[in-house]
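Each record in this resource describes a single protein on a pair of labelled lines. The shape at a given residue is found from the number at the same position. The record below illustrates this layout:

***
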Amino acid sequence: MILLLTIFALIHGTIGQPAQAPPTSITQSIRDKVISMHNYRRSRLAQGFVPNGVNGMKFLPKGSNIYYLKYNRTLENAAQQYADGCPTTGSSNTTRNDTGENFAIVPSTTMTYYDAVINATKQFWREVKRGAGIIDTTTLLYFSNMSGTLSRFTQMAWASTYEVGCGARICPRNSNTVVVCRYSPRGNIPNTRIYQLGEKCGTCPSNCVTAYNYQGLCNPP
């Protein structure tokens, strides 16, 4: 009987999903990297230095109201919980209330979590360079038909979002690593501006961030 129970436990520990999720994969160095990668790119956007694929690599217009992102451990916990299930797609909006999400599959089970999160963050941002880009650069409105082609970039760039937290899980059964980032307040709201056009920090509700690497970003609430 003991032998049978041991075999059962081994099978379900390697093939099925564990009954109890393993501890978080996210270390402080990963949290710091998430913040630096997101804010550096948002700063480049605020300054008008982000290429837009649709215009033959011309640049997206400057943004005047883009927040600096802070790291949020509650968002991380929610992202980690979802990643622990080794999903193959992102979660439904209806399960997240006012929280946005970016989802990535990294095709490796040997990459470190640190490198997997870097890979995923680059996936999110380069959507605007590799695809059609943002066609209407006059209003910069988000439309529902951007989902699946630009929505990860637009969530990462969304001006009024000011918190992020990420989770990751190696999934041997699927031969990949899942990375999930959650954002608050959520972006990708149809018929709403991704960000406000104008000179960097021009319409910040509060002061501008002074750090050199993050020029043009507004201090968050």
In short: The chain has five helices and eight strands. Residues 125 and 153 are 5 Å apart (CA to CA). The helical segments are 2-14, 28-46, 73-84, 113-130, 151-157.
